[in-house]
Amino acid sequence: MPEPLNFDVAIIGGGIAGVSIARELSQYSINVAVIERHDDVGLESTSTNHNLVCQGGDSLSFRPGTLHAELNIKSIPLWPKLADELNFPLKKVGGLWLIRDKADFKRYLRLYSRAFKSSLEPNAPYYIPEGSFQPLEFVNRKQLLDMEPYVMPNALGALYDPNLCITDPIKVAKALAENAKANGVEFLLKQEVIKIERQGITYSIYTRQGLIIKSTFVINASGIEVDRVAEMVGARNFSIVPLKGTLTDFDEEVGKLISHEVHVLPRMEDLPHVKAVLPNIYGFARSGIYLELTYKSDKAVREEAVNHNIKVAKELFPEIPFERHIVKSFTGFMAYTNADTGWHDFVVDIPDYVPNWINIVLGPAGVSASPMLGKKVIELLIQSGLRLEPKKGFDPRARRSVSS
Ligand SMILES: Cc1cc2nc3c(=O)[nH]c(=O)nc-3n(C[C@H](O)[C@H](O)[C@H](O)COP(=O)(O)OP(=O)(O)OC[C@H]3O[C@@H](n4cnc5c(N)ncnc54)[C@H](O)[C@@H]3O)c2cc1C
Questions:
Q1: ipTM for the complex?
Q2: Phi, psi of 383, deg, nearest 5
Q3: Which of 10, 118, 225, 321 shows its CA 20 to 30 Å from the CA of 349?
């Protein structure tokens, strides 16, 4: 039996959730470990998504009162500071929600007033001080065509979200992890958690590779495996379904013709898929999402999904010959909660009967919400009795490689 490694907090999973929490905790004088089964961080859901952050306009479709809406909206003003400290790419592109007819306009008006209720009025639940969030605005057809000359010419206008940014989530995850490591967090890579035992309030975490990690607090940030890991200690107080999304990338020839994220509200016949096209940080364009409920192991790219993504791109930008500029298509998974009611929400929660254990389920817009996630977890840890003393010498910019 190897000697156990002892920590105050063990984080299972080195995706955006795990590394954001690790970086937040690295500001305090405690021993923290991140346990990740791959040889680097950010290689699962964090690396296979739309790359959007600061999703203010998208927050329109988040139900007010959910953690999903709260963490996303509160994260918007935190992104520029984070990008500056950690030197990762962050580009404000803005989002355009196209208005195709009067019905779209009515739906946007309703969502628009809801967004204001959520965040922009001083007595709103997630009020964001003036200056850190630019209000959404309606633009007419002429303004729309000035902003996006190749967009569908019959659009009446758009609801414009000036806050929306694109980034490279893998770089963000690496930067957060490297900063956490430079500030004392231990990264146990190539370690897959296969068994967990609880003795009182001490957890013993066993990995397939033979490590035993003992910790007083455990944060289960294992992405699509969150239910399986929670079940190891009887801490599954939620249910998720694995939602697979297929995205398609197009080359720079197409990328240079698209400046904003262009999106339409799905109609009944579009569901469950998302109709969006956006530039990426390296000059490509990305289209999708073709969504499927399937098994976690089903990572295949289906022809039907790629055809859908090309069709969506051509619907939004009819003059651009997307089919001649395909670079690749790929799939990613998100954990979707409350599939029965259709209202997804994040889970950031301590199950009543399993002390010192926090389950994290993100799902849609989880990267966007990650700056606030770390702060939320700190609140829960303090409530659970963890004493957090600020660490002298915490350096918000320092970096140390985690994969060597
Ligand atoms: C198609 C698509 C588009 C999306 N677009 C966006 C977007 O534009 N903006 C946005 O904000 N969000 C988007 N999302 C959602 C976003 O990708 C997720 O919310 C986010 O990446 C979830 O991060 P995570 O850390 O919870 O999970 P992950 O990134 O999956 O990390 C979990 C980690 O846990 C590790 N792990 C699992 N089990 C074990 C174990 N037993 N032992 C050790 N390690 C383990 C895994 O290896 C993995 O590294 C999108 C998702 C999809 C699928």
A1: 0.99
A2: -60, -30
A3: 118
**What is the tens place of the pLDDT at every residue in 114-164?**
665 555 555 555 555 566 667 778 899 999 999 999 999 889 999 898 889
The average pLDDT across 234-250 equals 93
DSSP state letters, 83-139: HHHHT--EEE--EEEEE-SHHHHHHHHHHHHHHIIIIISTTSTT---TTSSPPPEEE
With a 6 Å cutoff on the Cβ, whether 51 touches ligand 1 is: yes
- How far does the centroid of ligand 1 lie from the alpha carbon of residue 364, in Å? 9
Residue closest by Cα to atom 41 of ligand 1: 193
Pocket test for ligand 1, best of 165, 187, 222 (most atoms within 8 A of CB): 222
Domain ranges of the chain: 5-47+170-239+343-383, 88-160+242-337
| Model confidence pLDDT, tens digit, residues 212-229 | 999 999 999 999 999 999
Residue nearest to atom 18 of ligand 1 (CA): 366
- Please give the CATH superfamily to which domain 88-160+242-337 belongs: D-Amino Acid Oxidase, subunit A, domain 2 (3.30.9.10)
Q: What is the pLDDT of residue 205?
A: 98
Token pair 């952050």 is at which residue? 53
**Contact in structure between 256 and 283 (CB atoms under 8 Å):** yes
Q: Determine the distance separating the centroid of ligand 1 and the alpha carbon of 43, expressed in angstroms.
A: 8
* Contact (CB, 8 A) for 104 and 98: yes
